[in-house]
Amino acid sequence: MKTAKKKLSILLVLAIVFSLLSLYATAEPAAADYSALDAAIGEKLPNEANLYFYTDEAIDLVTDVLENVIDRDLTADDQDVVDSYVDLVEELAALINIKVNDGSQSPLSFNGDDYPYAYPYGDDGYDFYPFRAEEKAEHTIDLSADKGLLPLVSRVAGDQSFTFKLAIGSNSLLCAGGIPLLYDKTKLEVVGVDNDEINAEFSPTTVGDNLAQYFDFTAVLNPDSPNFWPEVYRNDDDFKAQWGAINILMTSNFDDFDNLSVMPEGLEEVINIEFKVKEEAEEGFARIYIDPAFGRSAAEKANSLYLGRGKDAGSFSYYDQLAAYGATLDVEADVTVEIFKAILGDTNLDGNVNTVDVLLLMQFLKGATTFNEKQIYQGDVNLVVGGPGVLNTLDALVIRQYLLGDITGF
Known about the structure:
Blueprint: H1 2-26, H2 35-44, H3 48-51, H4 56-69, H5 79-96, E1 108-110, E2 113-115, E3 139-145, E4 149-151, E5 161-170, E6 174-184, E7 188-190, E8 200-202, E9 205-206, H6 211-214, E10 215-221, H7 231-234, H8 237-242, E11 243-252, E12 268-277, E13 284-289, E14 306-309, H9 319-322, E15 329-330, E16 334-340, H10 355-365, H11 373-379, H12 393-404
Parallel strand pairs: 3-15, 4-16
Antiparallel strand pairs: 1-2, 3-5, 5-12, 6-11, 6-13, 6-14, 7-12, 8-10, 9-12, 10-11, 13-16
Helix pairs in contact: 2-5, 10-12
């Protein structure tokens, strides 16, 4: 009996041992080490935000490699395959960031496939990045003014001045910028600056708490840098006789090292500049605008108009190192103000003062009609009661007195 029990115990032990050996034999092998691969992906390939600025072809290629080519289920037995992925990622990064100077390298090859490109600059040797899509970096500059109408002759302090406002918007991190403004200097001048001085530097008023906080804005009136004027205007004396220039430079505020590049929060108003009617101005329309001829390109790398994109919030690259000349920049922004010779009392704007103007003013006061800015200005013949820009019955009475000959002017 004891012998039988002993045999049974031995058999039970052997069964347990064989069971454990079987479990050990069928256990899954250790997973491969992907740490070097993940480091290469993080260092070499653009993150999701920056990948947006590559062509759709490049985005599809990166996505295919990360999601389909790289196998994330390999074991330690396949570590050499995982290690080879590191080389593949480095080759992919080199491809999508390649810089060419002509079309001789087309098509480019990667992982057995060909990727042709069309070099857009002929044989001039300008830098071109086939897999960059900087046109996706949409920058908007908006210009506005708090007045659209200015009198040729001043009646009230400040009525010949207006606040010019510049706003910036973008879908990418901004690190720097240059914004040249042209304005009709035969009709307008900058307030608080010697308008005859060359390279007159002044500080525009900054507004807002984002871009205006993290960037310094410096304005230079009448810049005479040899490269400021684009080739098309450089020797055009007639053009420069009418159009004055202000070069606005936007530089990162290095007091805050965590924000060398900043994303606009929508279309942000960032600076104000005060203009006024020039003494010798003639009536007519005066324009302030951004001229697309100032925009940077592969052929005109030094042009004044640009917004530089940062790689991330803590660093930046210069425009010609990061961008492929051609980022979309809205340069249709302009402001036009009208400088007019006021005919006081002429509320219907026909160039005469008569009883029709009195009747029209009374209709306005009763709410039966509306007035535009010029009608309000010319109907406001009384500046005492109600103050400037406020029409009342006294204005109608004063115009009537003028028509009756009781007074000779306003």
